[in-house]
Design a protein that fits this description.
By secondary structure, this protein is mainly alpha-helical. Among the domains are: 48 residues, no CATH class; 52 residues. The protein has 5 helices and 2 strands, in the order ααββααα. Strands 1-2 form a two-stranded antiparallel sheet. Helix 2 packs antiparallel against helix 3.
Length: 182
Amino acid sequence: MPAPADCRGTVCATHGGSAGHVKAAAARRVRTQEVEADTLAVIAAEGVEGVTDPLEALALLASEALAMKSALAARVNALSDITTTSKLGVEALKVEVQLYERAMDRAGRFLDLLAKSGIEERRMLITEAQAQLVFEVMNRVFNAIGLTAEQRALLPTVVPRELERMQSLQVNGKQATGQRVR
């Protein structure tokens, strides 16, 4: 009667189940299953929201891929040697280098998708539409409060200056207070 397959493997010891590479593959499968099960449990606990803006989701994935690439680059740069030699004398790239190469490929694919999607052009169109809306609202407010000709003449100078100040506050990490800026 043949021996049963190792609890982690798919073949019995008689048919290669006790070989080192088979045990290593079985251990990777078990670890992958554990990580997948844990990840699914986290997702189930948090709930999943639908994607409302696929391009924004893609941009987020690209950012995460770039962050992963940068983190792995730091690990690769810290290595004294990028190769390792097995007990059998086989030389191979260290796992950090392999992961870094994958991260570079993945980040490149995401960036290529973003470039092809025209996301920056779409963002620009949205920003322009929002600016046009703000412009229309401001004009309606100015008309409703009955600005004098002298006050209207100041608008092309005052409005851009105040918008630049607001942007400067946001860039420097400060929030606008709603107080008059002089």
